Amino acid sequence: MPAPEREDTRALTVVMHTAFFVLLSASLARYLARHAGGPHTPWIIALTALLAVLYVLGPAVGTRPGPRRLTWLGLVVAAWALLVVLAPSFAWCAVPLFYTGLRTLPPRAAIALVALLTALAVAAQLGLAGWPDPNVLVAPPAVAAVATTVFVVMQRQAARRDALIDDLVRTRRDLAATERREGTLAERERLAREIHDTLAQGLSSQRMLLQAADRLWDTAPGTARDHVRSAAAIAERSLAEARRFVHDLTPADLAEGGGLLQALRAVAERETTPTLTVRVHTEGTPPDPLPAPVESALLRIAQGALANVREHAAATTAILTLTCLDDQIVLDVTDDGRGFDPRTPAAPEAPAGASRGHGLPAIRARLRQLGGTLTVESAPGEGTALSAAIPLEPQ
Questions:
Q1: I need a labelling partner for 305 at 20 to 30 A (CA). Which of 91, 109, 121, 228 fits?
Q2: Alpha-carbon distance 198 to 193, whole Å?
Q3: What is the tally of structural domains in the chain?
């Protein structure tokens, strides 16, 4: 039970207990004032004291229904009933007893007890006042009905509130679990993109260079050694990427300073081979500073696209064009390779961005996180143009 609700229940209990003892004392004082020398006076005083002692012992037997609590409630009701028979003025003590019965018994049993107490109170008052007395006949049932209705309604509202709180807590737990699952899936997707754009591409390049070196080892040992040295350089670069990847840092080219343009030129220089020339063009001036997530995404997109050009396009020239507008920055990667049909599933020989089913989805996922868009234009024999656009916040 929440703390405020416990405080309200405690306050109501204190009020009811206080009201009981006030009514009990007032009833005894009224009886003594009118019948001090009557034959029943000792019994009235003894029963009043017994009822007070029994009522005080109530908290000691607990508040939950059980044999001890039910026995205690039966003794209290019996003592009160004897008092009412001997002195009808004690009938008003029934109101706090309504509350006690309603808190102790199940609803139907509690309502039956309230009806019994009310009937005893009415009968005693009618015997005292004489018949007919509409006030005596109607007032006790009306008070009992109001008290019972208010208590039952409050109990039902509390039960509905508790059920609602349970539903909210359960919903929060389910939502937290869903968020954790979504976070795990998002992190897996991020890891997959990072591995694809760094380690997987580096390993693929090393494999191609080592295979070429193996073929040329006997006929052109100098060229073969160049291929091996290139593979070693790529391995060193991949190792640096892996270390930064583990520490969740920026790409190695960006970490070296110089910004996105310098990083793109470094990538173009590494990707340039005797059979493939990679150039970098710029239009406009990139904002300074450019948001780190945007720089990282554009660099990874360039790396992925150039890796696909190298492996699948059979191109001789690839151009990276960085266009800086007021509200967005655009990276275009074009090549003069064999091209492909963007409307069909990527084939093994598909160029830029269509690498084995991972390139384009990875690029689109990066852009989607930044609110960007991807456009791919290609046709068999006519090369490929990939355009990645990312919106920029107003400066």
A1: 228
A2: 8
A3: 2
- Residue 67: asked if its preceding bond is cis (omega within 30°), the reply is no
Residue 214 lies in a domain: no
Residue from 79, 77, 80 nearest 90 by CA: 80
Dihedral of CA 338/341/342/345: which sign? negative
Give the span between the Cα atoms of 302 and 315, in whole angstroms: 16
Does any domain span residue 73? Answer: yes
Q: Is the pLDDT of residue 350 over 60?
A: no
Q: What is the DSSP string of 58-124?
A: GGGG-SS-SHHHHHHHHHHHHHHHHHHHH-GGGGGGHHHHHHHHHHHS-HHHHHHHHHHHHHHHHHH
380: CATH:
3.30.565.10
pLDDT digits (tens, 9 = 90+) for 111-138: 888 888 888 877 777 765 555 666 667 7
Q: Could you list the residue range(s) of the whole structural domain that residue 59 is in?
A: 3-131
Pairing of strands 317-324, 277-283: parallel
CB 293 within 8 A of CB 309: no
Cβ-count burial 118-137 (b if 16+ within 10 Å, e if not): bebbbbbbbeeeeeeeeebe
What is the mean pLDDT of the segment spanning 186-192? 71
Q: Terminus-to-terminus CA distance in the chain, angstroms?
A: 52
How many other C-beta atoms can be found within 10 angstroms of the C-beta atom of residue 10? 10
Tell me, yes or no, whether 159 lies in a domain. Answer: no
Give, to the nearest 10 degrees, the angle between helix 292-308 and helix 359-369. 170
Q: Which of 103, 131, 159 is the last residue of a domain?
A: 131
pLDDT band of residue 348 (cuts 50, 70, 90) is very low
pLDDT tens digits, 68-85: 888 888 888 888 888 888
70, 98, 131 - which closes a domain: 131
> Residue 210 contacts by C-beta under 8 Å, 6 or more apart in sequence?
227, 228, 231
Tokens of 387: 């355009």
What does R_g of the chain's alpha carbons equal in angstroms? Answer: 44
d(CA 227, CA 233): 10
